[in-house]
Each structure stands twice: as C-alpha cells, then as structure tokens.
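Fig. S4 source data, part A: sequence.
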Amino acid sequence: MNIIQNFNTFDYFPFQPEFEILSDYYIEYKQRNSDHSTTLFYQFKINRDLMNPMSVIPDGCIDILFYCDPDSPSADVCGSVLKYKTINFQANCEYFGVRFLPKQETQHFKYSMKEVINRQIPLADMVKIGPTIMERLINERDFRRRIKLFKEEIGINIFACNELPAIIEYSLDKIYSSKGNVNMNQLAAETGYSTRYLRKQFDAHVGMPPKLFSQIVRFQNSLHMLLNKRAFTVWDVINENGYFDQSHLINEFKKFGYMTPNEFIDAVSGNCQTQYNVIDI
C-alpha cells in the first residue's frame, strides 16, 4: 500500500554565489507559488571584463537566462550542471534570469528534464514563443516590468500545469526538508515503491538520480551556512548537514569541483563588489 502523504516543504532555494559576488549589481525577487514552490527572478550586470570567467555550480535547478543586448538578444534554458563550469558573460550587458526547482516541472518543454541537465538550449527550441515577446522583454529596462511581462507572456505557458507524480512531489519535499539527508531505501519504503522505480521517476521528472539530487541539496545548504560565517562555523555546517567529519565535507565540495569550504569563505569575504538588492513586488 502506498503511503504518500502531504509534507511541509522546507523553505529551501539554491543559489549561484558568483552571480551575486562578482556582478557590479545584482537584484532578485523570490515568488512563492500556490504549490509551495519558489520561483527566483534575478537581474545582474558586469561593467568590466573579469580576469576569470564566472563559475556556475550544481544547484538542481533550471534557469531561463536572457541576454539583454538589443543588437544581439538571446535566451537559453540552462539545466543544472553536475560539476562546476565557467561561463563567459559579456561586459556591459544586462542579464535577466528565472530560476525554478524541479517541483515546477513543465510538460510544455520539447526536451525532457534529463535532456536539459548539464546543457544550454535556446529557449525558442524548448517552447513556442510569440515573435515580439522576446524583443519586448529585452528592450524593457525595469526589473519589475520584466517580471510581469515574463509571467504574462512566457511563464503562463511554461508553468501552465503542475502534474508531478505524488512519489516525486513527496520525495522532493522530504529531500528539501531533511537538507539532503535522506536514505534512498527509507524513501522508497515510505512511498511504497521500489528504489528502482524511484530512480526511474527521478530520471524522468528531475533529470538525475535521487541520491545525486540529495547531495546537491546538501551542498547548497552548506554554502548558505558558510555565507553566514558569523553565525555558523565549519563544524556547525558538518553537524547540521549530516557530514561524518571535515574530510567528508571537503570531499563533497571537491566532487562538485568547487572550492574547499575555507576557500569559499575567503572568496566571499574578499571579492564581493556587488550592489545587491532584494525587492518586494
């Protein structure tokens, strides 16, 4: 007998630290949706050529990123990377992005979630868009009006329905609320399905195995705590996120190809130049 139940989602949302640290300005707005998921709208600009490209890290999310250059506009759907990679962003150009978790799965994309992981695909190849909508969004200068335009003209088609199987919805909520500390055998037992069936459903609707997704959630939670270094020590991060010891924490960071925890703290302390704003709408 299946025992899928309602589960209160932990207020979790991953981030890309270098977007916020290395941009000359960064602004964001988090929208809480009726299904208890969150959509992040953000905008940033780099006013000079960076000595090194920006890094993106695993976050388990999908981003729609608009390159707002009137002369050469573009928009891509970017699936979560599985290991950090660098991206060259254009100096003196504004970027507008929309980031969402797998819980907001869309059935309107022409590619499956698994096909999107670790890839960057033109938005026009993923979903049908009216010929003037892209131009209007790129030419719009106000962040709030860009959000409104996206929601009314693009998002309404992408997020028209949320029909995730109950096993996936329950599993995602459990992973988020436990900060990624979930035993897959236990999760399968709680949902009433086999681990094989659980992995198959995750491949279809999340794009990666549940164990890897859980590790990414734990990694992201650790980064959030390390950002608040005045409130948390490295040992707080280890204990709160279920790592065995400091070596376990460091090895997981290395698995995703990013800095060690101490290197991350130093980078955040020394490189933050951003005019940062979080807005209410």
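Fig. S4 source data, part B ends here. The mean pLDDT is 84.
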